[in-house]
Design a protein that fits this description.
With about 325 residues, the protein is an alpha/beta fold. Helices cover about 25% and strands about 25% of the residues. It has 2 domains: about 5-190, 3-Layer(aba) Sandwich (Rossmann fold), CATH 3.40.50; about 215-315, CobW-like, C-terminal domain (Hypothetical Protein Yjia, Chain: A,domain 2). Strand 11 (about 245-250) and strand 12 form a beta hairpin. The chain is globular. It catalyses: GTP + H2O = GDP + phosphate + H(+).
Length: about 325
Amino acid sequence: MPVPILLVTGFLGAGKTTVVNHLLAHAEGRRIAAVVNDFGAINIDAELIAGASDGVVSLANGCICCSLEGDLLRTLATLLRRDPKPEYIVIETSGVADPAEIVRNLMDPVILREAPLETVLCVMDTATPPAALDDALHRSQLRVADIVALSKLDLADEGAGARIREAIRAQRVPAVVVDAQHGEIPSALLFPATVDRAPAPRKPGPKRPAEQRFETLSWTSDQPLSLARLQQAIGRLAPKLARAKGLLETVEQPGRRMVFQFAAGRATLAPADAALAVSDAALAVGDAPALPCARIVFIVELGVLSKAELDGIMETCVADR
């Protein structure tokens, strides 16, 4: 029996991982396999974790989550050989990926027969400026979507929802637009009622040359950070950042790991839970060195921020300097 695929797309920081986490935590008896780009981003409640090994997090409810490493089609083939086989596969794309290219890969006849692409979900931050939808990447993400889910409604100003809905309509997108408060989307929209049929092949549009538009810069520290200095540093970097995320410890709360996120001009810091510790354990094999106190990945447009400038600003956050 074919295993339907749900493809989750959306720009950097839109809230894709929150949607995937909600699906896994509320599987309602479905055996779901999630394929994500960032293994460490999985944040399932600790009581759901059954174990982690070989790059796979197993959940007590029968779901699994694995990291997308290398070829997508090879990853899917590995999942389809698992026993028991998943009933659904969720693929979370990178925020800078053109989903049309992923759709084109999933139209491979062998994959289409075994794991047909059933639904494409585009997650969009409600606070996204309407003008941003003129960007080629945003348009591509909207164009392939069956459903557009508006996220972070609680963080947007009054009227933002109406503005972005109007902007989506102006793009002549045929997708259904729904609210996704805290990542929650009606499961009936995402999963087919029956799986004894294969959806018709999709037409992702003409193939376009790949555009290298973004780059990632990493920064680590073996020392905890000053929260006040971190706030100042992010304030200086914010105009140049598309996205940032990481794990860190602060001198204000020694020994307690925090998850740092920056998206759509907003920075948040929240306690890391036990599930992230499981993810770290799965990745730290053998005699791997201890993880640094702070490790943060910054995503920027090409050329707007040098590694030297980033290091100079972030080094001011280290508490003993």
